[in-house]
Structures are given as C-alpha cells and as structure tokens.
Recover the amino acids of this structure.
C-alpha cells in the first residue's frame, strides 16, 4: 500500500475531511504564485500592496494594483484537474470543506457555486463548505458604504484614469481581498480553526504554508489528532507534522487521490 493509498482510505473513512489550498493549486491554470522563481514578487514590490499604502496613497495603490491584477488575473483561466478532483471528492461525500488562501474564485467555479460570494467569505454549499480566507479578487468593496460589486468594470475605470475609483456614495473602492497588514474577517478565521480542530484528515495543497493562518492550521489539525497530508512541489515549514508529504504536481496527485478514494 502506498502513502497515497493510505491517505485515500483515510479520506474514505473520515468523519470530517478538509483541504487547505494555496496559490500552487492555481499555478497550473496559469495564475502565478507570489513566491518562488516565477512568483510575482520577483517582478513587483510586495511592500506597495499593503493596507497602509491603500489608506495613505489610494491613487498610487490603485495604479500598482491594476498592474498586479492584470498580471495575475488578466488572461483567461479556468479550474484545472486539481480543482476538479477536490470538487469531485466533495460530490462523492469524501471532502467536507475547502479552505482557500486563493482569491481567484476557481474552487467556486469547479463546484459550480456561482460568483455571488457572501460578505464573510463563507459559503455552505451543498457538497462542501468553501472558505475564502483572503477574500475574492473578482469583487471590489466600497470602504464607506460597504457595497460590493464586480471588480473588472472598476479595474477598467482605474485603467481609464479614475484612480482611485469611487462608489456612487463617494467612498473609495478597495479590492475585496485581505491586504498585507489587514485583519482577516473574524468569522472566517474562527470557522477555519474549528474545522481544522474537528478534522480527521487535513490536506494542505499548493501552499508554502508561510503565511498565517495557513501556517498554523495544519499544526492545529495534527495536534487534534488528524492525519495531515501535504502536496507541494517544495518543502514547507509544516512537513515535520505531516503524516504524508507528496512533493509532486497538484494536477498529478489530486486526480489519483480522488480515483483511489472513489474506488476504495
Ligand atoms: P505561495 O506563493 O507562498 O506558495 C505556493 C506554493 O505552491 C509554493 O511552495 C510552490 O512550490 C507550490 N506550487 C506551485 N506550483 C505547484 C504545483 N503545480 N503543484 C504543487 N505545488 C505547487 O502561495 P500561498 O501559500 O498561497 O500564500 C501566499 C498568498 O498568495 C496567499 O495569501 C494568497 O492569497 C495569495 N495568492 C493567491 C493567488 C490566487 O488566488 N491564485 C495567486 C498568488 C498568490
């Protein structure tokens, strides 16, 4: 029996199975990661995208954010075999929640959940709960009245020179994502922690596990007795607490895992 066979059988037997995903699951869809050799921080200055900069220099922030947004999300992209495998595991009843650090909305697409994500980032969909820990880049939010709206037309207005773009109420729009230096919504982080504590199987996929809360969720799951798996091309700071580490491409491992769990 391989380690993946064992992990698949744990998924089959789990009362609560959770996946935590990071930028690496969307890299095969053509969306660059932040870190690593091809990561956007090789071409952009991470320090320009903080909440502090948004507050003190919204026009400059929007000029830079527009470039970053077009670089990351400018092309056509769709869910890949790894997103589809997680959606299939959920449909099969083997996966209860997907906690994602990604803001690209691809788990929602794979699960056909639609794009009208709720304000708190928590969607209790029929097959699985989807938690968008860092928000959703397909929306912007007015910092005064809280109105949320589709991001692309607002980015187009910023490209046409309206920087910062503003809401009908006069408030400044902010991408509906958690910026560096900004707090995660309390409800989403509490739910993520309780799911990690409840889980019998916790699989971290395509994340460097370098940023909180992702960095501590696998440890929380391990200390609560879960079987912890990690699928990532590079080593992570959580490898030591994992029962299974697959240093392989997500699009290779996840479909295999789903097939094994389905046939087990
Ligand atoms: P990260 O960039 O820190 O790490 C990504 C990890 O994925 C790396 O360790 C890399 O080795 C691995 N990886 C890349 N391609 C892979 C593949 N095909 N198979 C397996 N592993 C692969 O990203 P992170 O851990 O998600 O954390 C940083 C932040 O990046 C998060 O806050 C997230 O919001 C943001 N982000 C999101 C997106 C997105 O929405 N798609 C893209 C870039 C960054």
């Amino acid at each position: 029996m391989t380690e993946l066979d064992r992990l698949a059988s744990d998924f089959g037997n789990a009362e609560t199975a959770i996946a935590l995903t990071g930028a690496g699951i969307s890299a095969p869809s053509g969306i660059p990661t932040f870190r690593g050799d091809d990561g956007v921080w090789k071409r952009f200055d991470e320090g320009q995208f903080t909440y502090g900069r948004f507050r003190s220099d919204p026009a400059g922030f929007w000029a830079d954010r527009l470039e970053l947004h077009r670089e990351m999300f400018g092309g056509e992209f769709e869910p890949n075999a790894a997103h589809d495998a997680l959606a299939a595991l959920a449909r099969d009843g083997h996966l209860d929640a997907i906690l994602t650090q990604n803001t690209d909305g691809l788990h929602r697409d794979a699960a056909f959940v639609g794009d009208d994500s709720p304000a708190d980032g928590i969607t209790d969909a029929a097959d699985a709960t989807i938690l968008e820990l860092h928000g959703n880049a397909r929306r912007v939010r007015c910092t005064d009245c809280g109105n949320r709206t589709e991001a692309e037309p607002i980015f187009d207005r910023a490209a046409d020179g309206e920087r910062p773009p503003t809401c009908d109420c006069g408030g400044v729009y902010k991408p509906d994502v958690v910026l560096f230096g900004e707090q995660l919504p309390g409800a989403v982080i509490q739910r993520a922690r309780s799911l990690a504590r409840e889980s019998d199987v916790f699989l971290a996929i395509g994340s460097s596990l370098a940023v909180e809360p992702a960095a501590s969720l696998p440890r929380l799951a391990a200390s609560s007795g879960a079987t912890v798996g990690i699928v990532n091309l590079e080593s992570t700071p959580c490898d030591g607490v994992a029962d299974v580490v697959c240093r392989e491409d997500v699009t290779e491992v996840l479909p295999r895992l789903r097939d094994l769990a389905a046939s087990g």
Q: What stands out?
A: The pocket of nicotinamide-adenine-dinucleotide is lined by residues 22-24, 26-28, 31, 33-36, 39, 101-104, 134, 206-208, 210-211, 214, 232-234, 249-250 (CB under 6 Å).
